[in-house]
Amino acid sequence: MEIRPYAASDFNGLDALWREAFPNDPPRNRADVSVPAKLAMNDDLLFVAVDQGRVVGSIMAGYDGHRGWLYSVAVGQDAKRRGIGTALVQTAEAALRRLGCCKINLQVRSTNAAVIAFYKGLGFTVEEHISMGRLL
Question: Which residues contact 73 (CB under 8 A, 6 or more apart)?
Fold first, then answer.
């Protein structure tokens, strides 16, 4: 298994992974919308985990000069419990650190106990903030 920056040839595998991992996400979060938008940023913060030529994991990071964010962290069901998620987070953290980032945020659905436990195991803590958003 290798973790590397996303390449255009990874699109179909990434799309399939996200459809499996995030089946209820709105259309605006689908790969055909999110990937081109991310690539337009030219920040090289979209990574894939590839095993035997197949995309088995992904992570997208962002940095605005103030705070880093993690998005679309996914590992395929048949690849879980192999350390891939941890390796993806560590890869994104290292990339953000190289950019000067000193704090990373992420959002998790409050009902997703397994994912919350995963991030706590990596040293993330629950911060008592209210997450707000607005569709444009």
Answer: 58, 59, 60, 85, 88, 89, 106
